[in-house]
Amino acid sequence: MAHASAPQSAPPQWRGLRSGPLRGRLQAPGDKSVSHRALLLGALAEGVTTITGLLEGEDVLRTAGAMRALGAGVERLGQGHWRILGRGGLSEPADVIDCGNSGTGARLILGAAAGFDLTATFTGDISLRGRPMGRVLKPLALMGASWIGRAGDRLPLSLRGGKLMGLDYAPPEPSAQVKSAILLAGLQARGETCVTETTPTRDHTERMLRSFGAEVEVAETLRGRAVRLRGGQPLRGQPIEVPGDPSSAAFPLVAALITPGSQVVVENVLLNPLRTGLFETLKNMGADLVVDNVREVGGEAVGDVTARYGDLQGVEVPADRAASMIDEYPILAVAAACARGRTVMRGLGELRVKESDRLGLMARGLADCGVEVEEGAEELTVTGGNRGRSPRGGAGVLTHGDHRIAMGFLVLGLTAEEPILVDQPDMIATSFPTFGELMRGLGADLGPI
Description:
By secondary structure, this protein is of the alpha/beta class. It has 2 domains: 13-30 and 243-448, Alpha-beta prism (UDP-n-acetylglucosamine1-carboxyvinyl-transferase, Chain); 32-231, Enolpyruvate transferase domain (UDP-n-acetylglucosamine1-carboxyvinyl-transferase, Chain), CATH 3.65.10. It has helices at 32-44, 58-69, 103-114, 126-129, 134-143, 176-186, 204-211, 246-258, 277-284, 329-337, 358-368, 403-413, 435-442, and strands at residues 13-17, 23-27, 46-52, 73-78, 81-87, 97-98, 119-123, 146-149, 157-160, 168-169, 192-197, 216-220, 225-230, 239-241, 263-270, 288-297, 300-308, 316-317, 341-346, 372-375, 379-384, 396-397, 420-423, 445-448. The strands form 6 sheets. The protein has a 4-stranded mixed sheet. α10 (329-337) links the parallel β18 (316-317) and β19. α1 packs parallel to α7, α3 (103-114) runs parallel beside α6 (176-186) and α10 runs parallel beside α11 (358-368). Residues 1-7 have low confidence and may be disordered.
């Protein structure tokens, strides 16, 4: 007798609905870049590292698991509070290391592991397995590491480390992940390692290495910004306080800027000058954005950022600003859709190889929501309507599992004429696990259908 198959449940979706004024204060979740590095350097150091404010998103938790697999003691003491017992090095893992969806985690761990006499196999989810690792593997191979992969430079792959030599390297594209991987490998290499950047990228690795006791020299040269370190330097465990992530703070702040009557304060936001390109751009657009209570936490400037609804004007964003806001272009495009006139964003080639083709997905999603968009190979132009005339919305946006695409379109839904749906909302937890709860606390009408 044939049995009817059980009905399949529809894939989860969230929607953003037109909302009233957003009001309130919130703490930004811990910075993802700093969280990854705190776990890595704590594992490489000798002794105890305590971390407070760690982002407990899926990406960072994968790095915590990888450090445990590579021989460090990793213990969660409470919400955002972790203790790492480092043994001054990494050891060969007993099993495959799964980095999930985290490109940052995968590339930095490859660099750290390359310095030790071990073989480790790395994999990730379907998105990460499609993203290039060659930009990290090439310089690591020049230092003496070797690897065997399946399809070119994609995961899964096995890395053989140890007996590295220092390297003088100029990455062909601006990438803090590449720079950091080389510096982490250089800690164990013979001689000096130098990375020279023509466009400076986020410098959390350099800052944190110093806090763990390493001597790192940074100098402006004719070739660019040169970062040097000597191999063989010991690291000592340290207390680390993780500041709030400006890339995550951007979503409630832009939501306030484009939702009539809103005023939102995000506290404890990292203000590293190599991470504040979005705030600079929003101010260029006329945003009512105020930074106060500026202070230093763990060698980084932090402050509280207040955003108030107001008129935005389209601008041209210079290409050389891209490195300081590469993760914020999806939410900038949302702000541009609600501004008067054209916003031109250049130098966006790196967006093609993020968790998704972010450039293409933003262009298609905005067009489906009735926004005028022009997409180039490395450029995006968004033409907003007059203030008071919101984007039409009314689209179901395919996110390809990209958390920043999902959050961006949910924010756009708060001011659009018709609801905006996004698929695969579970991926938001990779960087901002409390996004829905915090936004609803401000008065946003978004969440599961």
